[in-house]
C-alpha cells in the first residue's frame, strides 16, 4: 500500500466546518437545551424512527445510562458477549452489576443465543448483545428468550449505525439501544454516544444519570434536585453540531462503505485459506470493520491457527494495511481476572450479590478462535474508493500466497 494513499476519516467537508463555526458564532457552547444537542437528539431519533434519544459524551457513558435505566444494579447479573470492545463488559460494573460472559458464534463472532439460556439465573436483569463490526447479532432468539424470562435487552450498536436485522435498524429492537459516535465510526461525531428508546420510563431514568440525577423537564427547566446518583454525561454543542452535519450524509456514507466492501470482496473471492465477512440473508452489515477469516487448514499448513493468524497480520501490516486492535476477549482482561472493580472485591463481594461467576478465558474457545483467525481491516470509508480497495485486496492475496514461506 503506497504511503499517503489512504484519505483520512472522518472526511471533513465545508458543511461540517460551517456547522462547527456556526456554534462559535452563536456563542452557546453547552446546555441540556442547547440547539445542537437537542437537534442531534431529534435528528437521530427521526433517522431511527424512535421516540427518545439522549446525546451523551461517549458510547461508554450511554451504555452506563442504558444499563442503569433498565434497572441493573447491586446484586444483578447482566449477560453479554465475551468478545467486544472493553466498554461492553465494564459498563455493566458501573451501576454495580456483575457481568456474565457468553461465548460467540464461530463465524459471526457475535453472542451465541443458544448459550444465553444456560447462563440465566434469578439474578439476571438484562442481556447486552453487541453488533460486532456492523453485523447485527442474532436478535430474534435473544428477544424471545428475554421476553419469556422478563429480561431487558440493551443493544450495543456502537459499531453498527444503520445495520438492519429482519428489516429493522439495530438499536431500535431491544428495550434500549446505544451507539458510539467516536470519530472512527461510520457516523462520526469526534467523541460522543447516543442512547435511544421507545420506553418513556427508561428514557426518564437514563436522563437522570445523564444530568446530575435531575428529573428532565419537557420545557427544559431544571429544579437542580438530585433524585438519584447522576453523572454529567451531556455532550457539548461543538461535537453535536459536527455529528449533525455528518448525520446529514450518513446514508451516503453507509452506501459508499458497503460499495467499497463489496468491491474488495469481489477481488478476494476464491482466495484459498480465506473467508469473506459473513452477511446472513436476514441482516445487513455496515462494515465498521471488514473482517476476513483465515482458514489455514485449507492450505494444508500444519501450524496452529494462532500462529498463522499472527504471521498474516504482521505481514499485512508490513505491507501497509491498517488492522484493528480493539477486539478483546473481555473476561481475560486484568480487571476481570483480578476482580479489580471498585476495590475490596466490589461488586462481586457486595452483600447483595449472591452468585458466583467465573472469568476463565478458556471458557470462551470460539471467541479465542475467532480472534486467532480474524484479519480486521480498518479502511473502508469514502472518499477512498476502488483504488484503495484494490490495493488492500492485492496485499491480502500476496500475503496468503506466501503464507508457507512466512511461517
Ligand atoms: C462495541 C462498543 N461498545 C462501546 C464502545 C464505547 O464507545 P465510546 O468509545 O464512544 O465510549 C465502543 C467503542 O468503540 C464499541 O466498539
Provide the spatial order of strands within the biggest beta sheet: 1-10-9-6-5-2-4
Largest sheet: 7 strands, mixed
From N to C, what is the helix and strand string? HHEHEEHEEHEEEEEHHHEEEHEHHEHH
State the end-to-end distance: 22 Å
Name the poorly predicted regions: none
Report the C-alpha radius of gyration, rounded.
22 Å
The overall pLDDT average reads 97
What shape does the CA trace take?
Answer: globular
How big a fraction of the residues is strand? 5-15%
Separate helix tally: 13
The distinct ligands, each listed once, are:
pyridoxal-5'-phosphate
Write the layout of secondary structure elements.
Elements: H1 14-26, H2 35-48, E1 52-56, H3 59-69, E2 77-81, E3 83-84, H4 86-90, E4 98-102, E5 124-128, H5 139-149, E6 152-156, E7 164-165, E8 168-169, E9 176-180, E10 193-197, H6 200-210, H7 237-247, H8 250-268, E11 274-275, E12 283-284, E13 290-294, H9 305-318, E14 328-329, H10 334-337, H11 365-373, E15 374-377, H12 386-401, H13 403-406
Parallel strand pairs: 2-4, 2-5, 5-6, 6-9
Antiparallel strand pairs: 1-10, 3-14, 7-8, 7-12, 9-10, 11-13, 13-15
Helix pairs in contact: 1-7, 2-7, 3-6, 8-12, 9-11
The structure holds pyridoxal-5'-phosphate.
